[in-house]
Amino acid sequence: GQNIDQPTEMTATEGAIVQINCTYQTSGFNGLFWYQQHAGEAPTFLSYNVLDGLEEKGRFSSFLSRSKGYSYLLLKELQMKDSASYLCAVPSGAGSYQLTFGKGTKLSVIP
Amino acid sequence: DADVTQTPRNRITKTGKRIMLECSQTKGHDRMYWYRQDPGLGLQLIYYSFDVKDINKGEISDGYSVSRQAQAKFSLSLESAIPNQTALYFCATSDPTGSNEQFFGPGTRLTVL
């Protein structure tokens, strides 16, 4: 099975940079997803990493190290609207199309 | 218009009642999923379907059943609702030709009294 670990909560200041870490153990790696979920709303896709390295998309970047089973999501120039939960997810097995989600990191952005 | 819709958006019911949650999508995706989300537990997969004739149990299927009436429709039923099925339920779709990114519906908040 899959095992995903991420911090439960984080707090950061508006305008700052925050890094949300995710470690995973998987029986067959096939990419890692990050989703954003505002309270009571649907998760929305942020990024997908299948190769090692950093991928940048505007204020958000995602990093992957397959050898270390490690990823992080980097949010720059934090805005109040970035207050949300951030979910890390990996396929549920080699060649699987189902995703196993982490429990999410609740980020609070304060003035 | 939303690509993935769920009805109802909110439902309050009593223990023992049969409940159906419906999901429709206009994305043309073959793969559809039902999740439940409880505070602090993340998203848990209940059932998934890769086409109309393919239904698979997820990690927490006990007490639930599904029906894939068409490519665009995937319904979740609670045969006899119990209070610990109170949760937020999400439907999702994915397209295997790409990254298999999942697209979520807006969710149904179900309360079982």
Outline the structure in words.
The complex is a heterodimer of chains A (111) and B (113). The radius of gyration of chain A is 13 Å and the shape is globular. The model of chain A has no long low-confidence stretch (mean pLDDT 92). Chain A has strands spanning 3-5, 9-13, 18-25, 32-37, 44-49, 53-57, 60-65, 70-75, 84-91, 99-101, 105-110. Chain A has 111 residues and is mostly beta strands. In chain A, the strands form two sheets. In chain A, strands 2, 4, 5, 9, 10 and 11 form a six-stranded mixed beta sheet that branches. By secondary structure, chain B is mainly β. In chain B, strands 2, 4, 5, 6, 9, 10 and 11 form a seven-stranded mixed beta sheet that branches. In chain B, strands 1-3-8-7 form a four-stranded antiparallel beta sheet, with no helix packed on it. In chain B, β5 and β6 form a beta hairpin. Chain B is globular, with a radius of gyration of 13 Å. Chain B starts with a strand and ends with a strand. The interface between A and B is medium-sized, with 22 and 24 residues.
Salient structural properties:
heterodimer; A: 111 residues; mainly beta; six-stranded mixed β-sheet; 56% strand; B: 113 residues; seven-stranded mixed β-sheet; 0% helix
Compact overview of the structure:
Chain A has strands at 3-5, 9-13, 18-25, 32-37, 44-49, 53-57, 60-65, 70-75, 84-91, 99-101, 105-110. Chain A is mainly beta. In chain B, the strands form 2 sheets. In chain B, strands 2, 4, 5, 6, 9, 10 and 11 form a 7-stranded mixed β-sheet that branches. A 4-stranded antiparallel β-sheet of chain B has the order 1-3-8-7, with no helix packed on it.
